[in-house]
Specification:
Beta-galactosidase, Chain A, domain 5; 13 helices; 501 residues; eight-stranded antiparallel beta sheet; alpha+beta
Length: 501
């Protein structure tokens, strides 16, 4: 089967450096479609992944050489164990074999052969506790789940019977309760939902109804534990609310349990301009219509509302886990059609300085005790009015109380803290603002005035898309506690729209 994919494939090899077993470093190869080729629905996600990760399969057929995101791998017995410890996402997507989908659109015979070669080289070791060992052989839960998605795509493309035994082994791994990232052995997590979606798709493609039935039973069991009564999930990131709504919607209709409240909670987080801020892990997204409704979730720690054209979010709740950041007390603020305060999102998942910054208090609009970067409290929230809130939290000898009031033209933040001498109120300006003597000016012409006796503007980065960093500013209000007293600060931010606005 031969189909033209429209991919631009890089040619040529730079002199490489060794990175692990048969993994070579080379300049990133390009793999971008001029248009999206025709393909089965089951293939689109894998194809997009291959494009995003710059997969280059131009030498797979001729020499079993594969390149992805700056790495070059020789697909031999050692190369199949490729692993980048600093970038677990790269390792996940290499072992997913999603990069075979662009090749299969042009040369399905080679794609099937390579899939079989990998299957023979690294059989399932079973459920073992050494996760590092599983990662290098491609048998973590995420790896065998995404590989099931890939084999489902290849079967939809080729109907090649040699793929069925491989699919059965991958489905059995996904069905194994001891390896399932969810009840009864583990808390509910989006990885479990993705495993169930993979089983639904594979069951339909290969005609194995038992896989579909098992996935639906898991969905039905897990769904009550995913979302709290207000509709928000327990994973601490706005993008993962979007992901969970999408994942569980695939089963909710079949189960007769539409996700009314989770969908409403998601829509309440969306700004009037249609942007879902990247709160926690992820990047900003569009495409979800805003509802203009209010959200108040005490178990998971979210507040949001739209009043006229002013929108805000506020974070509190349980300590950081499940894709969350050290963001308790942090807020976003959108008014006069302009994003004023934003969250920074995540550049990618490589464990480096950008990753550490994105998760730290310094990347969020919080009250930070200087010198205590690991502060991670549970934070209680009280709704004083529809647009005013008080948050309290204690951890490791630090006590914080924050009162936040939102109006269309003004944000008022009152902080009180004990247990540290030096404190910083961070106000993370959205991209498009530049500092002035009295605050900041937006590219639209709007101005911002900050009322704080000791403040300075610090240049930082905002991560507006996957592996995209743009300049941004953190307005920092400095506070020093007097001896024997708590640190206290009240800061107001006032927005004046542009004359044309």
């Amino acid at each position: 089967m031969m189909r033209r994919s429209g991919l631009v494939r890089a040619v040529g090899l730079a002199v490489p450096l060794v990175l692990g077993a048969s993994v070579l470093l080379a300049p990133p190869a390009t793999a971008r479609p001029t248009d999206i080729p025709e393909m089965p629905t089951q293939c689109r996600s894998s194809y997009k992944t291959a494009v995003q990760w710059k997969a280059d399969v131009s030498q797979v057929a001729s020499g079993r050489i594969f390149r992805m995101d700056g790495h070059t791998v020789r697909l031999d017995r050692k190369g199949w164990r490729a692993n980048d410890p600093k970038d677990p996402s790269w390792t996940l997507w290499f072992h997913s074999l999603a990069w075979l989908v662009p090749l299969a659109l042009d040369d399905s015979a080679t794609a099937v052969e390579v899939f079989e070669e990998r299957d023979r080289a690294l059989p399932d070791p079973g459920d073992i506790s050494d996760k590092a060992a599983l990662r290098s052989v491609g048998w973590t839960q995420g790896q065998f789940r995404t590989r099931l998605e890939t084999v489902t795509c290849l079967y939809a493309l080729t109907r090649h019977e040699r793929l069925l035994p491989i699919a059965k082994r991958l489905a059995e791994a996904n069905l194994d309760a001891t390896r399932y990232p969810g009840p009864p052995n583990f808390p509910v997590h989006n990885h479990g939902a993705m495993s169930n979606v993979a089983l639904l798709q594979a069951g339909k493609a290969f005609g194995v109804t038992a896989w579909e039935d098992a996935a639906l039973k898991r969905f039905e069991r897990d769904m009550p534990e995913v979302f709290e009564p207000c509709g928000m999930m327990y994973e601490q990131a706005s993008g993962y609310q979007l992901l969970n709504v999408r994942l569980y919607s695939k089963a909710a209709e079949r189960l007769g349990r539409p996700l009314v409240r989770p969908a409403a909670a998601l829509a309440a987080l969306v700004r009037p301009d249609g942007v879902l801020e990247a709160i926690g892990d992820g990047q900003p997204t569009t495409g979800t219509p805003p509802s203009g409704e209010s959200l108040w979730c005490t178990k998971t720690g979210w507040a949001a509302s739209t009043v006229d054209d002013m929108h805000f979010t506020l974070r509190f709740g349980p300590s950081m886990k499940f894709h969350g950041h050290r963001d308790h007390g942090s807020m976003t603020w959108f008014t006069y059609g302009i994003p004023v305060l934003s969250d920074r999102g995540l550049y990618d998942k490589e464990r480096n300085a950008r990753y550490q910054y994105a998760h730290a208090m310094a990347a969020h609009s919080v009250f930070e005790p200087v010198g205590l970067p690991n502060l991670n409290p549970d934070t209680e929230g009280e709704r004083l009015t529809d647009t005013s809130f008080q948050l309290t939290g204690s951890h490791d000898g630090i006590d914080r109380t924050r009162t936040v009031t939102f109006t269309r033209e003004r944000l008022t933040v009152r902080d009180e803290g004990s247990g540290a001498k030096e404190w910083i109120q961070h106000f993370q300006l959205a991209p498009g603002w530049t500092p002035t003597r009295t605050g900041a000016r937006h590219e639209s012409g709007a101005t911002l005035t900050i009322d704080c006796p000791r403040w300075k503007a610090v240049e930082v980065e905002a991560f507006t898309a996957w592996r995209t960093a743009v300049p941004a500013w953190d307005l920092q209000c400095r506070v020093t506690a007097k001896k024997g007293e708590d640190a206290r600060a009240t800061t107001t931010l006032t927005v004046n729209p542009s004359v044309d606005g």
